[in-house]
Amino acid sequence: MPKPKNDDTKSPGICYLVGAGPGDLGLVTLRAKECIEIADVVVYDYLCNSAMLKWAKPDAELIYAGKKSKAHTIPQDELNDLLVAKTREGKVVTRLKGGDPLVFGRGGEEAQELRAAGVRFEFVPGISSSIAGPAYAGIPVTHRACTSQLTIFTGHEDPTKAETSIDYAKIAQADGTKVMLMGVERLEVVTKALREGGAAGKTPVALVRWATTGKQETLTGTLADIAAKASEIDFKAPAVCVIGEVVNLREELNWFETRPLFGKRIVVTRTRSQAGVLSQQLGEMGADVYELPTIRIEKPMNMMQFGECVQDCHKYDWIIFTSPNGVDAFFDLFFKLYHDARAMGGARIAAIGPGTAKKVKEYHLAVDLLPDEYVAESLLKALLEESGSVDNLTFLWVKAEKTRDVIGAGLTEAGGIVDEAIAYRTLPETEDVTGGRQRFLEEGADVITFTSASTVESFLDLKLPLPEKLKIASIGPVTSQTLREHGLYVDIEAEEHDIPGLVKAIRNYFTP
């Protein structure tokens, strides 16, 4: 290995060569998450789940390196120079590579360049698709009844090499399971070489595409016919190829592809900060979820006025929260003004639904009133019934800038004194921050979800064409009313007007 050109190893800069796992966000290691959270620069590849970029600091520099077959956004030599330059600047650089950085991931080559430049680096192993891909297709790569040996090889060697370094005859004659990475484009050549090397044509083979994600596809066959099958349906990379008797266990052990929403492409239109919960719950049921944020949350225009309301919150009989965003905005400012929750005095707390109530409880406070139905009309009714008479009672309503005036008008009409604390603004998302719009145009979807009237209106402002068979899912009657006012048919509506209720409704629609 080349010796360092200079001794910069005491520099504060460091480059983490991190395995980003095979695609499922749940398979990213805790250490990988830590490296993303502390990074000043994140350099990521085509196969990395972009959802993990949410863990990066707001001011972190995000650099897409591509590395898709035959389409490298940044050539490898330029990428090496980039990693060195950013690290030499004293920055924390996290280099994300799909799977494990050292399993045909060129992590060793990048580490050599960093060492030669005299800058610090660390390896952070990740779960390799060579074992995760087969596992998610119901194929254990080893099994005492079938094999106790595993061979992993690549189907994509360095194109500058004069000749192959892979001895297919030895691989063909080796016992146990063989797993090939990055070889779909050369499948016919490789399977032919293995057969010529002595492997039986009837040997079971499975191809697993986009393994561990909602886009996963599995194709099975034999060494003799898998290439023809793949060509017939245009089965493309990225895919893992599993060769051996363990493939026969798939019929018995297939678990991931039997989930209730597997194969359903579902769009989430919530803000980037909020989309994760809905995306996760749908993803756990096997859906192929992607986010197309239509709105974003901004601070109120009059922050001083909001601050005065928060400062005087102890003077009210009731504090009403009608969204989790309002709860976060309120307490973020409250704890800048006060150091003790008891500064709220004797004010009672009302929340419109379980999601908002859960957010209040995260601040270690109890919710005194929660309506049976999670809409403004039900919350108003509950407040009137709970108080008996609201005459001269004071209410601080923590709300968005634009919202229906059901609660304020109703309480005022009944004799209550209502002050509105405008905690945030909901604005249209003007940028395709997740690439969701482009994907919607190119791939469409089976279901699109809406969790508020503002997500509906902002989505329609984008003027994206709706696929013919697209199903529309609404979180509740107010959102559904907005959809109908714009001439759209609501296929799915949650009976319980919260995220778990929406997920349940979507599942019941496809698996009644």
Question: What this model shows, in words?
Answer:
This protein is an alpha/beta fold. It has four domains: 14-127, Cobalt-precorrin-4 Transmethylase, domain 1 (3-Layer(aba) Sandwich), CATH 3.40.1010; 131-257, Tetrapyrrole methylase, C-terminal domain (Methyltransferase, Cobalt-precorrin-4 Transmethylase, Domain 2, 2-Layer Sandwich); 265-294 and 429-510, 3-Layer(aba) Sandwich (Rossmann fold), CATH 3.40.50.10090; 301-427, Rossmann fold. Helices cover 33% and strands 20% of the residues. The protein has 18 helices and 20 strands. The protein has helices at residues 30-38, 76-88, 107-116, 129-136, 168-173, 187-196, 226-232, 250-253, 272-283, 303-311, 324-337, 354-361, 376-387, 406-413, 436-443, 453-461, 477-485, 499-510, and strands spanning 14-19, 41-45, 61-66, 92-97, 120-124, 150-154, 177-181, 204-209, 217-222, 239-243, 265-268, 288-291, 295-298, 318-321, 348-351, 394-400, 417-428, 447-450, 471-474, 492-493. The strands form four sheets. The chain has a five-stranded parallel sheet with strand order 3-2-4-1-5, sandwiched between helices. Helix 5 links the parallel strand 6 (150-154) and strand 7 (177-181). Helix 13 runs parallel beside helix 14. The longest helix is centred in the middle third of the chain and has 14 residues, at 324-337. The N and C termini lie far apart (61 Å). The relative contact order is 0.08.
